[in-house]
Specification:
heterodimer; A: alpha/beta; four-stranded antiparallel sheet; B: 264 residues; mainly alpha; MetI-like fold; 11 helices
């Protein structure tokens, strides 16, 4: 049973240099009660994917084709009011930068009241719920925290408050957009554990966006690897990390500094640049940077499936 | 603090004018004309023998009510238009900016003269002029800040939590943009008082015999060599009010701008 199913999603931005195809034929599933990680380098379309799901694409962005099935309903067909009803109640989001995600001039309690605007509870009950939620994310003295302003909290606390806000309406799907990137390593671990704990308590599914491979390996059940607006490989975390099929995934894993066994001044990199998405290559999107390129790579590779493990590469034989 | 005291004195004087002086502001007594300041007439009398202190206090009513009403109206209209321009579609923004600039390009006095020619001199004309002159500037301030906040992460976060446009504007954008505008508006109050006095001085504002600081100034102007206290009675309150509201504006700025407060 899938909470979220993305089917052949194409998103295009109108730019001065012509249409930019930010997402091309993206497909993957987020099953119920599972944590799905999306990895990829900057500019691979992770944020566009989130905005497309939330229906908050910039004015020049548009879903060209494809479906975003959320609980069997296609979000791309919903009008803005229906979408608004989804956001914050069924689907909620934690953002990357905890400093920016909270309104600096409104107290935390008031912001938490605003999130509960759909609820019929009275103000006292709503505040009690906010306090309970802050307690669950381990904010010390949650009652007095309500009357305090975001700048009075540390970065890690702010991110925990943001998580509390996202979890408050007990969503079916939590989208976490690099929630630990702005935090230091210790806080990162604590935040991951907190997310796992709350996910288990509330029983929601999580779409976890990150470029930190270690975090993904630690937290996620399934992994989707994106490159330049396409899904190049997806499978369970074990499949992706132990038996990567796509050359990009393989090289990405090799670039993880945590995987270095010897001291070196030179971290491994993938030479080359992301292709221009206003004019993407006809064949394999990764061909330009791939060290195992063959002539067949001039044509678009099929998606090959092996026991739930899928990759888009000519070299992969079922 | 000084500003608050001055402003409170002004408001108190205007509100309790009837209790503070027994003399009626418009009662003519030719026998008492051109009297210097005395215990009976604290600021003296004018060319028609009217008590100037009473006229100044009642003139304060006119000045303050014109200022407060027209600034409040400018604020409401300016904030609404600014939010629409900043948050709405691009074409609407362009159209509104064009309109604001068109209005702003009129010199205030010209605009006032044109309106008075059309509708005749009255307090309403004064207030319409003030609103017309202030709204474009207020709306621009709000618009610029709204544009900057439109893509702020907490706005996106609020949207992703299900807040609609109205909620985003009211709960998240407005509290972030209103502070500087309130400071500006409080500093504009003396400007409005000067506009009202100026228009009344020119005979474009209140109609005689209604007391107004500008009208008193005009009365004293012709006799300034022999009886300067009339002009002083008209000018002094304008100076004090300007000072008071300017200091008040600075106090407000300290309250609204936490960075300044933290430093001081």
């Amino acid at each position: 049973m899938n909470v979220l199913g993305i089917r052949n999603l194409n998103v295009t931005f109108g730019t001065e240099g012509g249409p930019l195809r930010a997402l091309r034929n993206v497909s993957f599933d987020v099953p119920r009660h599972r944590i799905v990680g999306v990895v990829g380098e900057s500019g691979c379309g992770k944020s566009t994917l989130i905005n497309a799901i939330l229906g908050l694409l910039a004015d020049n962005g548009q879903v060209e084709s494809g479906q975003i099935l959320f609980e069997e309903r296609d979000l791309t067909q919903m009008d803005s009011l229906e979408m608004q009803a989804m956001r914050g109640s069924r689907i909620s989001t934690v953002f990357q930068d905890p400093m920016g995600a909270l309104n600096p001039v409104i107290s935390v309690g008031k912001q938490m009241l605003h999130i509960q605007y759909r609820s019929d509870l009275g103000r006292t009950e709503k505040n009690a719920r906010s306090v309970e939620m802050l307690r669950r994310v381990r904010i010390p003295d949650p009652k007095s925290a309500l009357s305090r302003y975001p700048h009075e909290f540390s970065g890690g606390m702010k991110q925990r408050i943001a998580i509390a806000m996202a979890m408050m309406m007990e969503p079916v799907l939590l989208i976490a957009d690099e929630p630990t990137t702005a935090l230091d390593a210790t806080l990162e671990v604590a935040t991951i554990e907190l997310l796992q704990e709350l996910q288990a308590q509330i029983g929601c599914s999580v779409l976890f966006i990150s470029h930190h491979l270690g975090v993904i390996a630690e937290l996620c059940d399934d992994v989707v690897v994106m490159y330049a607006g396409e899904v190049v490989e997806r499978g369970t975390t074990r499949q992706i990390f132990h038996d990567p099929l796509h050359p990009y995934t393989e090289r990405l894993l090799r670039c993880d500094p945590a995987g270095q066994s010897t001291r070196t001044r030179h971290l491994p990199t993938i030479p080359g640049e992301i292709p221009d998405l206003r004019d993407p290559p006809k064949g394999c999107i990764f061909a330009d940077r791939c060290d195992r390129r063959e002539t067949i790579c001039e044509t678009a590779p099929p998606e090959v499936e092996m026991g739930g493990h899928r990759a888009c590469c000519h070299r992969v034989k079922p | 603090m000084f500003g608050v005291v001055l402003v409170l004195l002004m408001i108190g004087g205007a509100v309790f004018a009837d209790l503070l002086v027994a003399a009626e502001p418009n009662r003519i007594s030719p026998r008492d004309r051109f009297q210097g300041p005395s215990l009976a007439h604290l600021m003296g009398t004018d060319q028609l023998g009217r008590d100037l202190f009473s006229r100044v206090l009642h003139g304060g009513r006119i000045a303050l009510s014109v200022a407060l009403i027209s600034i409040a109206a400018s604020l409401v209209i300016g904030v609404v238009l600014g939010l629409i321009a900043g948050y709405g579609p691009r074409w609407l923004d362009n159209l509104m900016i064009l309109l604001f600039d068109a209005i702003k390009s009129f010199p205030t006095v010209m605009l006032a003269l044109a309106l008075v020619t059309l509708f005749g001199p009255s307090l309403t004309a004064v207030m319409v002029v003030v609103v017309l002159v202030n709204v474009p500037g207020y709306a621009r301030i709000i618009r610029t800040q709204t544009l900057a906040l439109k893509s702020a992460q907490f706005v996106t976060a609020a949207q992703s939590m299900g807040a609609g446009t109205a909620r985003v504007l009211r709960a998240h954008v407005l509290p972030n943009v209103i502070g500087p505008l309130l400071i500006l508006a409080s500093m504009d109050i003396p400007v409005v008082i000067a506009i009202e006095a100026g228009m009344s001085f020119l005979g474009l504002g209140v109609r005689p015999p209604t007391p107004s600081w500008g009208a008193i100034l005009n009365d004293g102007f012709t006799a300034i060599r022999d009886t300067p206290w009339i002009a002083i009675a008209g000018g002094l309150p304008i100076i004090l009010t300007t000072l008071g509201f300017t200091f008040l504006g600075e106090t407000l700025r300290d309250v609204f701008d936490p960075r300044l407060k933290a430093r001081g």
